[in-house]
Amino acid sequence: MARIAYRDADVALMARMMRAEAEGEGQQGMLYVGNVIVNRRIANCLDFRNLRTINQVIFQVQGGNFSFEAVQKGNVFYQRARNVEKRLARKNLEFWRQHPAKFALWYFNPGGQCPPTWYGQPFSGQFKNHCYYEPRPGTCEPVYGG
């Protein structure tokens, strides 16, 4: 059974986001970004309450800005998703979860060393240029169970 319900349009949008955010980090890096997207959809806690679709996750606005840099800068729309990114997105939507993004709700590229916390949330690991952060234990149980 899939981690969340989804449509072909969700796969295509998620695949474009994965490519825009992490193409330079290869398929593994794109899978980690996809993992965060699915986790945010599942979360229903902290900054991610009432997100019911992939579209809502990707176009979420926090603090007056889109949550994802690729949406803020518009580069999520520059290129279509290729079949490889769609395959990776489906893999995330169906079953794939792996450290350091297994429970992560946030990631960013600090341009240097990863800080031990990100807005009070603990560092879960790094892959290439991206640092991943998961919610503190007890603050977002759906992510850990989903």
Summarize the structure.
Pfam families: Hydrolase_2. The protein is α+β, with helices and mostly antiparallel strands.
Structural description of this entry:
- The strands form two sheets. A four-stranded antiparallel beta sheet has the order 3-6-5-4, covered by helices on one side.
- It has helices spanning 8-22, 26-43, 54-58, 69-72, 83-94, 141-145, and strands at 61-62, 65-66, 106-108, 117-118, 121-127, 130-133.
- It has one domain (8-144).
- The chain is an alpha+beta fold.
- 40% of the residues lie in helices and 14% in strands.
- The longest helix has 18 residues, at 26-43.
Helix content: 40-55%
Shape: globular
List how many beta strands DSSP finds. Answer: 6
**Average pLDDT for all residues:** 94
The major sheet is characterized as: 4 strands, antiparallel
* Total domains: 1
Architecture blueprint of SSEs:
Blueprint: H1 8-22, H2 26-43, H3 54-58, E1 61-62, E2 65-66, H4 69-72, H5 83-94, E3 106-108, E4 117-118, E5 121-127, E6 130-133, H6 141-145
Helix pairs in contact: 1-2, 1-5, 2-5
Features:
146 residues; N-acetylmuramoyl-L-alanine amidase; SleB_dom1; 14% strand; Cell_wall_hydrolase_SleB; 6 strands; alpha+beta; 40% helix; hydrolase activity
